[in-house]
Amino acid sequence: MNVPVIFQFLRDLSTHNNREWFNTHHAQYETARVEFEELLSMVIARLSVFDESIRGIIPKDCTYRIYRDIRFSEDKTPYKTHFGGYINSKGKKSDHCGYYIHIQPGNCLLGGGSYCPPPPLLKALRQAVYDNIEEYLSIVEDPAFRQYFPVIGENFLRTAPKGFPKDFPYLKYIQCKEYTACCPVPDSFFLQPDFLEQTDAIFRQLKRFSDFVNYTIDNFE
Q1: 172-197: pLDDT as tens digits
Q2: Rounded CA gap, 166 and 178, in Å?
Q3: Is there a contact between 181 and 112 (Cβ–Cβ < 8 Å)?
C-alpha cells in the first residue's frame, strides 16, 4: 500500500481538473485507484474480526466512480477530487449504516450512518431514538464514542419534527435530517504505522451507533 501516491494524484487532479489532463495521466489514476482498493482490502479484513457481516465484501463493491454527475450542477469540473469507499454489508447505496473512508487532501475522514433516509424511514429512526432515549444516550454520550463522533447528523430542523413534543429534553437527537457520524482525521492518519489499529478503534465505536440505527431499519423494512 502506497498512500502517498493517492495523495499526490488527488492534489494534481485538484489543480488540473479537466479531461485533457486526466486522459494524459490516466495511468497515474489507475495506480492511485489500485492503491486505494488495497487500503480498503486491508480495512475490510481488519473490521471483519468484529463485524462478520462484511466478510466477503471486496473493494470494488465499496468504491465510487471518479466521474462527477454534472448534469444539474453549476460546478462543471468533471472529476471528484477524493477517493471514497463505503464498506456496507447491504451495498454502498443502502440506507443501512456501514463504514466510510474518505481520502481527500486536507479533508480526510472516517464515518458512517444512514445518509438522506427517505421521510418514512427518517420518522421511524426519530421514533426509535425517542422511544429508546436511554439506550441511545448510553451510546452517543459515552466519552469513548464522543471522542471520535461528537455530533450526530449534518443538517438539522430548527424546531421539533412533526409529531414530537417541543419540550423533549434531547431534542437535538431527533432534529437531525440524517443519522450520520463523522470523524475528521489529518492526512497523516493514513501514513501512520498503526493506521489499522486506529481505524479499528474508531469503527468499533461507530458500530455501536450503527447497530442501533440498523436494528430500526431492519424492522422498518
Answers
A1: 999 999 999 999 999 999 999 999 99
A2: 19
A3: yes
Question: Residues near 134 by Cβ (< 8 Å), separated by ≥ 6?
Answer: none
Vertex 48: Cα angle to 44 and 54 (nearest 5):
75
Nearest alpha-carbon partner for 113 in 180, 51, 173 = 180
Residue where the block lists cell 440524517 = 178
SS3 category, 103:
strand
8 Å CB contact between 171 and 182: no
Sign of CA dihedral 67, 179, 36, 51: negative
Helix residue ranges, H only, the chain: 3-15, 19-24, 26-47, 119-131, 133-140, 143-146, 172-175, 195-220
Q: Residue type for 11, please?
A: R
- What confidence tens digit (pLDDT) does each residue in 127-158 have? 999 999 999 999 999 999 999 999 999 999 99
Q: And the C-alpha cell for 41?
A: 482490502
Other C-beta atoms closer than 10 Å to the C-beta of 52 total 10
Contact call for residues 66 and 23 (beta carbons, < 8 A): no
Query: Which residues pair with residue 101 across a beta bridge?
Result: 85, 110
Question: Could you tell me which of 192, 175, 185 has the C-alpha nearest to residue 122?
Answer: 175
pTM for this predicted structure: 0.94
**What SS3 class is residue 60?**
helix
**C-alpha cell belonging to residue 97:** 449504516
- Strands of 74-115, DSSP E: 83-87, 99-103, 108-114
